[in-house]
Amino acid sequence: MQSLVIEGYLAADPSILSAQGSGRKRASFRVLETTRYRKADGTPGERTTGFNCVCFGEATTENYIAPFARKGSRVVLQGHVENDTWTGKDGVEHYDLRLIVSDIRLKNRRAAGPRTDSGDRQVQEPAGGYDLNDDIPF
Questions:
Q1: More confident residue, 123 or 5
Q2: Which candidate, 73, 99, 78, 101, places its Cα nearest to that of 10?
Q3: First-to-last CA distance in the chain?
Q4: What is the CA radius of gyration of the chain?
């Protein structure tokens, strides 16, 4: 089995789904990772790759991803790659790769301000005037 580590940003809010029958929850989301490089002529270039990801860990989905992961959140994922195949409504068979997440770390920015009485840190809105609901610039 191949293990893969990806660091990138969530392209949209994660989709939390319940399995039919068992009701077990899973999270489905897309992570964008940008690689910057120099072309042969010295000009800078960049390439963005999207990864379809699924987390089957019910506790991780309910207690970590659902309340905290949002569009634009910076994440570090570890997992393995699986082939995904399905037949479309037109009868054509489709193929895709997806990352089955075994470990996820959210790297959201937090203020280093004082703690409140409950022990939680106060979260400060990002300076710079950007809105996380806007399209990601890459």
A1: 5
A2: 73
A3: 31
A4: 18
Confirm if 64 and 88 have CB atoms less than 8 A apart: no
Q: In DSSP terms, which residues pair with 28 in a beta bridge? A: 15, 54
Sign of CA dihedral 95, 58, 122, 107: negative
* Domains of the chain, earliest start first: 3-106 (2.40.50.140)
**Interval 30-74: pLDDT, tens:** 999 999 999 999 999 999 999 999 999 888 988 889 999 999 999
